[in-house]
Amino acid sequence: MPFELADGQPPVLPDDIGAVIHLAAVTSGVPAPGQDEVAAAQRLLAAASDRRVPFVFVSSQTASEHAPTAYGRTKWRIEQLTLAQGGCVVRPGQVYGGPERGLFGLLARLRRVPVLPAFVPPPRVQPVHVDDLAQALLACTAPQGRPGVLCIGDASPITFTRFLALIAHGRTGRRPLFVPVPVLLVRLAGRLVGPVARERLGLARLTSLFELPPMDTDADLRSWACSCAPSPPAWPAWGMRIAAG
User: pLDDT tens digits for 202-219?
Assistant: First the structure.
């Protein structure tokens, strides 16, 4: 169902709804005037409570009370509301696969660029295929699903440069040329342009990438796998998908 965050009206959920999975978010970097994601989440939580159905909030690996971006801080605030109501919070790693949309779409389109930045020191990401993330979200709505925070992503982080290289090679068969770019220079540029331009230029998102906290996903992956299948197979390399269940 479409969910307009700026709409102050309570959402009308179907009578036969089985669960609410909250995926709506401001991704433009600069929220629309009057838009309040926290208030929107509160309305959605209230609607789920009225229907007495499970509530799953798709958060972010960047979620933190002191995150460098408003995006990460907002996600953290909604997490607290969700947990207080006994809901489930899912923090995905770097999502890839499927249609080229969102951040993955942006990264996939970079495959056409012959030269890409290799940040130094290299930030690390924990990829998860979009289909596996969807299975995890559905598992959270099952009767045996548990409330709390569930971290879904590869247990062994890889460098962001390696991640970009694999996307480019997998979609074009070619490997781009990487040019070292010091993280310090990017941070300095972000400070010089100011907070508004930093958001618009995507420098805040890069800062968030540089400060991405590692997630201990091993236990959560096993918990999710056990709720999907009685005997989950061994996990292949992330490039072949994290098929934990």
Answer: 777 788 888 889 999 988
